[in-house]
Amino acid sequence: MNSSLLSKNIQEFIAKNIGESITKLALQKNPFPDVEWILILNQIEAKTKAKDKLPTWFSTEDIIYPSKISVEQTSSEKTAAYKASLISGESLIDLTGGFGVDDYYFSKRFKNIAHCEINENLSAIVKHNFEKLQIKNCSFFADDSTNVLTASNQKWDWIYIDPSRRNDAKGKVFMMKDCLPNVPELLDFYFEKSNAILIKTAPLLDLSAGLSELKFVKNIHIIALENEVKELLFEIHNHYSGDITIKTANILKDKIETFEFILGNESYFPSYELPQKYLYEPNSAIMKSGGFDEVSSFFKINKLHKHSHLYTSDQLINFSGRSFEIEKVISYNKNDMKTELLNQQANITTRNFPDTVENIRKKWKIKNGGNLYCFFTTDKNDNKIVLICRKIT
């Protein structure tokens, strides 16, 4: 950690240049010749990234940032706060501490936490930042987490792990065994140190692939931020053998949309109907969960088709996703398309439909945007239809 970055003049310069083009700044002469120009530029770039993602860090004085990539890869404060709300206890050890955003929020839910980070410089940065953030219940270990656990006799209430993908795994189907640490391989060792483990994975991991590599899974949490899936969390408890619950959360500016169901429960029976007055499109966390029959059963709304994943009802409900009022339903044929949508402006979505959005726009000369929302889909009778809608929420 380069503490010279904390000089008052450099910190003022960093603050003054938030949002400025790093490419342009790089061409200027370094006004602080005693400190490498690239280090100062990195602080400006990383702090700019942190403005919306990490407002607590951004607004705290004398914070030091690691590389821009570390800031990009870390949890946002909103997802970290939600994640911390899921668990609590006396002690937690984070085996892959990184920039420490998750641990900042875990520190508010646990009496003691430990931050393990194999990168000594990053570990020192986080330790410094936690002092500035006034977090006093965190211990820091600049070492491989396996070494830290091996050297300690402590039993932890929770282990938290955010494995990183190995470079040589690029291009392969994403599996947990392709990450560091290799959680499936180390799971029995981890259970010697804790009976409860929370594993964060990238959103592209297939749920069934994760389940095939792990054991004792109790809950799978799917977290989206503003309708973009950001994290999957596998919550495992030693020797657990009951139902697996899928819990989804879509964190919005003014609320959190939640939905949950029991995986593989055969008591969920969807109902099917032709388009009614309202149309519903599940949020991205629900889409990732695959619980499409469960949505129909839980919200008491009808599916348009087994594979369309769009829902309809005559009464408007409070739904976890987007809601629309259907203005018109047309068949997908030449005459209806010419009459209703040729040369129009509309937002287009396809669900269980043989053509792409791009081709549809090109074929019918439909411009993007506007207040009209058109869903090209298939109804319960296998007819190709277009739902012309106005957005409600």
From TrEMBL:
Domain of life, source organism: Bacteria
InterPro entries found in the cross-reference section: PG_1098_Fer, SAM-dependent_MTases_sf, Thump-like
Gene Ontology biological process: methylation
All residue ranges annotated as the THUMP-like domain in the record: 321-391
GO molecular function: methyltransferase activity
Residue span, PG-1098 ferredoxin-like domain: 278-319
Keywords for this protein: Methyltransferase, Transferase
Alphabetized Gene3D superfamilies for the sequence: Methyltransferase PG1098, N-terminal domain (1.10.10.1110), Vaccinia Virus protein VP39 (3.40.50.150)
Keyword field contains Ligase: no
UniProt-recorded name of the protein: SAM-dependent methyltransferase
